Amino acid sequence: MTASPQDPAPNPHATAEEVEAALRDTKLAQVLYHDWEAETYDDKWSISYDERCIDYARGRFDAVAGDQPLPYERALELGCGTGFFLLNLMQGGVAKTGSVTDLSPGMVKVAMRNAEHLGLPVDGRVADAETIPYEDNTFDLVVGHAVLHHIPDVEQSLREVLRVLKPGGRFVFAGEPSTIGNFYARWLGRATWAATTNVTKLPFLADWRRPQAELDESSRAAALEAVVDLHTFDPTDLENIAKSAGAVEVKAKTEEFAAALLGWPVRTFEAAVPPEKLSWGWAKFAFGGFKTLSWVDDKVLQHVVPRNFFYNVMITGVKPGATD
Asked: Contact 260/185 with Cβ under 8 angstroms?
């Protein structure tokens, strides 16, 4: 596991002045927000590197890419966060070796640490997705999860993805918010946050309330989140962006409708109450409910609900020019 010695150090405690500047500079906001989240991100989103998340990551890959000759020799994760997508795909047999990049030094640091703990052959770079710091024709596969909606120029980033892919190489991006899905998810999140933080002001529920300093910090983070979340996607529009960037064999799929209607209130409630209040029973309910409603989405609602109503968009495409 290697990281570039030229990479900047993480900055998990931004000053008020830096936050104010970030409100006018989206890339600075990306760095500050994700550096702030890096050390707690896996816990916040219930990310793990075991069978549960290996199956989830591999399921997303298979759902949009279909059957592929595996493993790919070398893969890159763009906007890696803590490494969730690539590291779990590697464990699931999708790629042999990997590279991770993110604009946030804190996220690259955590992703590299996770790779080291898992014993996976991974290198890491702090990098802008619009100017990927690797040579042409380097990778067999490029992946990303919940990253495209943070990138100012998505088409330019996909051009860079195609540049670093070998001819015939594939990209797979998942976890992108649809335009309609983002509307109802944000509404549910705001309503849940307001209800929880107000109800826990009652004296007999005081021990269910996080300290005010933590709630204030979450509110500041939410303000930055509004700056770093730049796009939502109609799946057809995203397909057209990928084709315009030069990709072939482009296909978008969507998932999570009923599951999102449960998932967003659950995640917001978990962020608003002390973690020690949430028992194993709660975790079992949350995960079991999500799995059940995901089954309903896949087996029933996918056949009757238009694809742009689902929350998550996934997209794949191929770099033209393969000799085989």
From this structure: yes
